[in-house]
Records
---
Amino acid sequence: MPIDPAPKRDLQARAVQVRKLILQAVHKAGAGHVGGPLSMVEIAVAMYFKILRIDPKNPQWPDRDRYVLSKGHSCIALYATLALRGFFPVEEVFTYDAMNSRMQGHPDMTKTPGIDMSSGSLGTGASPPLGMALAAKRLGKDFHTWVHLGDGEIQEGQVWEMAFVASQYQVDNLTAIVDYNKVQQFGFPKDGNLRRRVNPLVQVPEKWRAFGWHVIECDGHDFDALIPACEEAKTIKGRPACIVAHTIKGKGVSFMEGDYNWHAKVPSPEELAKALAELEAGVPVG
Amino acid sequence: MAKLIEMRATWGETMLELTKTHPNLMVLDGDLGNSTMAQIVAYNAPDFYMNMGIAEQNMMGVAAGMASAGLIPWLSSFACFLANRDLDQLRVTVTQPKLNVKLAGHYSGILTGKTGKTHIDVEDIAILRALPHMTVVAPADSVECRQAVLALTDMPGPAYLRITRDASPVIFGEDYRFAIGPVVPIREGKDLTIFGTGVQTARALEACDLLASEGISAHLVHVPTLKPIDGNGIVAAARKTGRVLTTEDHNIIGGLGGAVAEVLGQHAPFPMKIHGLQDCYGESGPNDAMLEKYGLTPKHVALAAKALLNKAR
């Protein structure tokens, strides 16, 4: 079921803004990640501009929905989204990685408004959201908790410990989103080609189903698919839901898409100019 | 002969007691409830108990999420798993964000019911003491254990309680009052100062009697809080005699001996000896034989004291 065209255009415009901020901030910092942040943009925008029950003026509101970016290295995309949503000034995004900045290289809940859990060591961000969801049930609260996982990250065993326990306790106020971009930092050779490297993990929906989760597959760059998937996930009763969002690493910039080399590469001034021009001129993503 | 009580039972009973006054309490069990006595809560207050399965890394993260939402989770597992298996989860999601998560490290030290090297943990104090924001407490007996559970529950922030498996002597009276931090003088003496921690303090107390029978007067101080360490209390106790022995059911690296040496080395250097596990892992065996082989009996503490005195002369 497609969403209304007007709000969709709004979300698409937000996505372009987020992508530009990601590239500009990483370029300015001379460090950081690019490919993973670009693959999660529509998911973050859908969350903060459409799905989550939040109050940017009260980031510690006890009844807010929780969103945990477990693939913490992609946090620049989250910072850009939080800034545009009003959690802190957009200019602050450009202090990314600077000394004494609230924009840390990996998410730090003690520093950044709107960050619900510290993460950065892959897999470790998977379980706190389960704890939040269990706490909501225990405390009689109706907030929903979302955990955003990378597809490389789900190679970590802790993710499957979480998947088992969430299923055992029928935790239906928790939704995992797997950002399935099929590329990781270095990866494994594709078809014997040592220079073309991918995350070979397959049967991702089947794996979550086997652990007892309700699985929804969708295009992670298409708001018409992504938002209904999120809304469906919230309605599932008696078990947790997992959205397997098919994404493209480096999405939105032609020469970055699908290339593991852009996992954590800083764009040169020329590359930045070319990428920004593409984003401004290009067909809107989402 | 002092009364013997299992600290793990005291921990479980105190947890149950806390469910009456702390509605946000939650005991998370790594599927060892009938070893750690988390079963006391599981059977009597099931709403306050969740088995997290054989999945300690997830359990630590779940506790972090619960604490962030206002619950007070107590993790219950063996010390070896809490201090080692899920160390990264503890570091990234509990101690770095200073979340209010409590760890009950059962089966610490070498007396673990013949389980052997995997389940014996003689490095937990060293590991957990090195984590910023962590509080580390090793009670000497059941009386102190109960009060430490109450104090740690009401203290904001991450904390580790070091508990032993088997019944150990009760050395404190019911009038004893535990506080997080201060060292506890047990016996006055003038020839040397002995610092003990955990159940080893009771063995050190017996060692004081052995030494007294040979005319040596030992000043015994119990150190229940390994972190934050009571620097002033340690310096004052060391100054009383000018000679310092530490003894612990833990490796000689990074534990009580390390903590005391860090204080005295900088503020009051005295001749010192660190007594404990000689940088080795354990094995399976009956308690008496284990204490004998690994040198933790009162007799061994007394020998270490005499060696220190001879060296210092």
Note: The mean pLDDT of chain B is 97.
---
Amino acid sequence: MIELVILLLIPLVVTFVAPFFNSRNATYLSFVSFMVPFFGILYYLMAGTSFEIPITKVSAPIGEFYLLADPIANAFGLTVCIVSAMVSIYSLPYMKHRFEEMEYEVESEFKKYIFLYNLYAVSMLWLVYCGNLILLYIFLELSLLASFALIYLYGYGNRQWVAVLYFVWTHIAGVLALIGFLIIAYENSTLALKNIAAISYTAWLLIFLGMLVKLPGLGPHIWLPWAHAEAPTPVSALLSPLTVGLAGFILLRIYLTDPWFIDMYRTPILIYALISSIYAGFSVFKQKDYKKLLAYSTVSQMGYCLIAICLGSYGAIALVIQYISHAFGKSILFMTAGAIIAVYHGLRDVEKMGGLHEYIPTISNAALLGFMTLGGILTIGMFGEFFILKGIVDIYEFNIWVIVAVVFVFILSGFYGFYTLKIIFYGTPKGFKTPKIDRMLDVPLYVIGLLSIAFIFPPLATGLLNALKVILGVLP
Amino acid sequence: MELSVLVALIVLSLGAALSFKDTRLVFATSLIALAIVFSTTWNVYTFFIIIIAALNIASLEVMKRSQIKGVDYALVALMGVATIYVFFVDDLATLLAMFVVVSVPTYLLVMVTDNKANVDVGIKYITFMVLATVLFIIGAILLVHSPHGGLMYVVGYTMLVLGLCIEIGVAPMHEWVPDVFTAADPIPISIIASLAKFVPFVVAYKILVSTTNPLTPFVTMILAVLAAISMFIGNIGALTSKETSRILAYSTVANMGYILATLTVIINFNWIYLALTGAMLQLIVNSMGKIGFFTAIKEGKGSTPLMYTLALSFIGLPPLMGFWSKLFILTSLVYVKYTWLAFVLVVNSAISVPYYIRIARNLSKGWMLSLANAIALIAVLIVLITVIPPDWFVEAMKNFSEMLFIKGV
Amino acid sequence: MIELIALLYLAPIFCSIPIAIAWGMEKKPEYARNLPMLSVFGLFISLLVSLYILFRVDVPTYTIEWLPEYNINFVFIFDYLSKYMGVLTAFIAFLIGVYGLEYMKDDYRLGWYWMFFNVFTASMLLVVYSDNLLMLLIGWEGLGIASWGLIGHWFRDDDPLSYVGIIDRKVWKLNMFWSPSFGGWRAISTIRFGDMPMFFAVAAIYALTGNLNISEIDWAALFHHIGPAGTLILILCFLMGPFTKSAQLPFSEWLMTAMTGPTTVSALLHSATMVAAGTYLFMRFSWYVEPWHVHSLGLEYIYILVLFSGLLSALYGAIVATGCLERKVLLAASTMSSLGLMFASSAASMWLGKIALYVAFWYLIVHAFAKATLFLVAGHLIHVTHDRFCVGDKEVAKKMKLAFIVTIFATISLSGIPPFTAYWVKSAMDEVMHHLTHEFGALPLTLLILTSIAYAAFLAKFLSLNFIKGEKAHLHLHGGNVMGLAYSIMVSMLAVLLILIVGEYEPHAGEFLKEGFVANSFMVGVAVLASYSFALYVPRIKQLSSVGTFLSDRMYLPFLNDFILPKVGWFIAKIIDYCNKAIDFFCHKAIPSAFEGWSIGIRAIQSGELNKYIKIVVGCVILVLAIISVLGW
């Protein structure tokens, strides 16, 4: 049990150590520091263990600080680890290119970068294991800070404006949730998840609204395309796959603690989620910027999470799987966008692309894996969709409108996926030259992609879903 | 304890007297006086006060010249001693005396500059301070002498709060703040914006807590409205200000709004320790930030990581102290059912993000070794102290909340 | 057993990995062009395993744990349908693999081709052998993605030979020609449109019964539980998958543009196996639901729907094919027609019992071999003539005797001319439709006969226009031995089937024999022969060329797919884009500038005049005191 703490400490320590190495070694070190916990967590997940590790007792109303290592945390932690590890490898060639473009001194700038990168990833890793809401909020804000700094320093376009915009929106999200947490603290005189007995209306509402901004739902979603498109691509590849989905994680934690709010307002939330998912799905088609396109797809996919949470206990399982599958898929896709930017000097306009498969087949094939994962074709996303659909029947039986809407959402994400593939990678080649691609720019994509496929077969699927069965006992 | 304060005062006056001989001597005696007081009163609160006072004294070194070189050290030390002493005082007369003791040295300090005494600013500042002091003292006396509530209590309460507002610069009585902050020298302003802010609040707390009665929830509303106005005016005003010191002036207005908001908690004594924790931590955060920023303004440059850390602390990012202070303020507001005020605070903390980042960007000029940077570094270390969750501070404030009551009321 | 299963599925996939990797290398190694042999070897292993399963495996099912906690496992079923279908799939895949060795020899994208080809085979085998619906869906999705990958194989869109339709032809505002990359997108989008409702149905079945094994679920109880309306929704959703995959009306367009893929792909995926998977699934479903025992109004409506949509699709496909001039598109339309017949015949099981399923299944087998043969010949012809339209006079027949003979045999066998293979199966089908007279009058039988006549006509037309009466073609004869061998073996299977039926070696197929001797069936056979002969003699009628254009434009069905739906979609997307712009403006322009305005207003107080300040402050103080006094009074 205590080994988990060591596993989680490794990347934390490396965060502070890595800047002392040269760029290549620092990258390898960060990679290893996330891979080790990955395998550890994988073991815990497959074994289906669930335990708590006390850290310290703080006086009321904050309550006990402890790590909660249940299968849900393990599933999220696993995803954070593998994506962070792969993106860290990918960062090296990409950020070198970016620093050269910005005319920075590569080695010294990379030290700054790798510190912030690791801090960002590790704060998300710790977040999912937090057993106390205040601790959770702290890591949430820490990850916000690190990602803000990364956008602020290395982003594209009007990066400082975008960074501040990102900061303001997510800060509102965080602090709204914080007030919710404080109301919980007042009513339960603790913030330790295991001791919270009830969550009142105002608290639930505030947390829900905060997470809606963070997730984001329709309306507040407007910040996301800016932030995710203008961030340096390795950061986009963490922001979009990992960070926004953590809002879903927090909602799930709150839901499992006291489900009454969702149970009571299930239908309006579901309608909102469906509209926002379909809305964002249609938005994808009009995007000209590849990264912005992916960002809108994230909004649509996060709609899945919101749909899932309205669908009872199987929906909750679907949420976890949806997080994993979206993380896998979207990290691959953002990395393909980054690879195109890196080899074609900032090419992001999809209208100028076309037939790119001719020149960068490895990237193109990885993008295929990415969109397959998003669409749930032959990849872990399939289980997510399966449990969402099962949840519909559990909760709404044969309500034709819900069925049509959800099915349409799924169809739409397949549509924009293959449409995007077609306009970017297939069709008549447009006379680019064939670049030499650094293997670090494409191998990590395949690792994630293959893992995503491996997760529908035993033993990974068996282990994951057996472990997630704990959710079924808790909810109605 | 009284003895140690007495000794400290003697040491201080001796030092001040020696100032015409060697200013370094005053520097030493000032620190000694602080140390003497601290040695008999040490707890977390006094610890932070000592640090702030010491930083203020050290920051005076950044000024090349000063009209009252030497005496200024003693004045700051005197304020420090008073700020510590007010913590333990439990009679009205001494409290009000301490209020004046901390207020008056700033009249002098505000006019100090590198070359020529800035009398214009002095006049503006002193006018407001006198008004504030009068209102505050009248209000305090009315409060103490209206044991059964009634209109006397309501009027007294309002006058005291208004006096407090003018003294510390809460909108809409904040007009002096932007002018004085931009026109005066940054170093004295850093003192006015940091050390001088504690005593008015502590005194107000003590008097208001001691005189609560069934009318309190009603009059508290006026306070809450003032706090909300102040937050909005401060933060929005700062958004488009160009000069860094002007931004900081508006930031002070906003911060004073946050702290004023905690005074709403006197309607429920159970949570007063949370309010105190929030208020005191926010005062410390504000002090650290203002000291760090103003010394950097004085020098014209600050080091990048320090400036950004201070800015983020103001924004309220964990685990910096600025997060914990806002956390406890929010907690206390939520507990006394002032959720709307908590909500206003949240909105304001979001509005404040752009301009704090702008301050940091304006001041950041890379790494360098200088006194100003050393001061900023210490300030940063202080805001980083809460990497350990400030349970210890809450405990201290619990004890403090027991000592809030004034004798004979 | 588990080793066998592993071999069956993993052999083709693993054997194609080397070529995929070798082709992805920046400098292709020299041996890369030989690696397809390995892929075909993988297909061969699958074939051996499937044969072993046919002859030696007696257990009904075999289970491998997958999600045991959820009662979802990999369940392989070995029944009448799956045993034959498995061998059929593996055999045709292997033979077309061999053909592909020569056909795709000089291609620029072998890694992609063989990877997807073998993934397709494995997926198809998974669909064939699976009893569990979720496991079947894995294979099902595999089919979809492989189909997409192979249709869009020539992604460069630079080879006119790979298009469908006359390039640069426009009807009103619509381009009537389709590139491979477009064909791929259209295929996957249509299939996706059907797969998702089907996926829902599978999840719903799981939610309602807690079981996903087709053979174990108590279907009658399920239908009873959810009532007629529920049954209708559930099964209709379920059948959306088979309908789209088997290109029934109105989802047929994707199959026509799927002809942009290599001919091997058209032969394997878009005639013999993948598109047949939809009908196969419907047969399997009916096999275990046993609709003839279930009394459910909802189910009856569904079967009526399938019956008529199948017959209408069959007729539509056959008529369209008579107007087609492109070799592969003609065959694609005919495939659609055959699939319709399979659906219709299976649906008849509602009233006639299992016999209808046997008819449908045997028609599937016959059709698979015959149509694959025709496609392979078409591929060879395209290679030789460098033209995808039907061209070729007697010189072609002379120079390519083998292809000529094979085509004659395949067309005759498929069209249902007595006493060749399809005649017996078609006769049984005639009888099945005849029996439905009680329920629906003569309509089903009429539709079937019309379809059969049109069917024979376009097959003869295909033969005639390519070998006898077509325009003169310039031939590029070289190689072709492997291809010739492959389609010769393929067509010889039709003879084997004929022997199996006529010799009554296969008990169920043997039963068709007596139907062939019914007078009605024989008359239909004669009518078919007449139509065949006529079309052979007059392959094109000049006076009807405008009708022909109407037909070869698929009765303008492309307008639905390529015009109406995209217009609606883009319209919505445009509106939403404006919404996004508005929200963006509001949040990131309007609000910040409002704050700026307020900020400037707030700062405007700072005039620097002490008098004014004092007035403001004293005013405030008095105001507050006044308010509080009034309120406090």
Note: The first helix of chain B runs from residue 2 to 17.
